[in-house]
Amino acid sequence: MKIFKLLLLTALLPFLLMANDDRPPIPYNYLAKKEVQNFINMMVKKYHFKRSYMTSVMKHAKLDRDTLARYTGRYKVGTTNGSWERYKAHVLDKESLRKAKKFKKQYYRTLRRASKQYHIDMNYIVGFIGVESKFGEYTGDYNILDSLATLAFHPNRMKKFFKSEFKNLFLFAREKGYKITKLEGSFAGAMGCVQQVPSVARKHRSDFNGDGITDPWDLEDCIGSIAKFMHQNKWRNGNIVAVPTNFKGKRFSKLKTSHRRTIATKTIHKAGIKPTKPFNESRAYLLKTRNTTHDDIWMAGRNFKVLTRYNNSTSYGMAIHLIAMSVK
Hints:
- The chain is α+β, with helices and mostly antiparallel strands.
- The protein has helices at residues 2-5, 34-47, 51-60, 65-70, 84-90, 94-106, 108-118, 122-133, 144-153, 159-176, 198-203, 219-232, 265-270, 302-308, 314-327; strands spanning 26-27, 62-63, 142-143, 184-185, 242-244, 263-264, 283-290, 295-300.
- The strands form 3 sheets. It has a 4-stranded antiparallel β-sheet. A two-stranded antiparallel sheet has the order 1-2.
- Strand 7 and strand 8 (295-300) form a beta hairpin.
């Protein structure tokens, strides 16, 4: 599921989805770049786009300086790596948790149907949609054409990935009949209530409301998409996700904490770390969420890894887990 690991770049906090009005996109002559001409030639030859269409679209594309700065090391505020304090302030605050309960009540029948069909826990679907778009309220207002053109054709640390997504943007827009110049999303080109980049929106779409249309901005379709994702990544109902431990110190350094590799439960116990709730798996992900004054230490099971396959981040997975716990 390599592609879902790349969603670390796109499955973002709602407060990071807002456009930067201080640095709006500016006109840029993409057609003067040989790399762009080669791209157009490829799209015409391999995917049978009309050259006039490709040229017209590229004339519309602008340089998004705000987006580029995020991937060239100059951007400081609101980077793609959200701190735990930011998650707590913007995703796990009282108002967001209130909205989580309201969302579950409003879409309970759809959530229950998804839970039964895919054998997953509906509360974690609520968590996903809460973290990704605050239940559809914030799906991003960056022009996706501008963002992905900028990242596809200007030097940055993920240029190869974004060039592929730019290709998929054209394919996605054609398949859906969307006007490519009008699509809006995150600064990295992610769309809809579960923030899918174009390749993922094409591959993992869902028509869960049965209207014959797969719509990344439709909340019922998003519920189906996340449920399908969880099922495909081997979610197991009844298995452990994460439990708190007895650690009461300020900073933890006895063992390496990571959501990428497990540690034998016996080893964790020998280090003096014990779960405060039943934990019956022989190995665990030992997790740390770093607060301003102290660390919280968690033990997580195999189900937690499913969460981080959508966004490769401990804080992301823990935010989903805590929202899910709040609405059970």
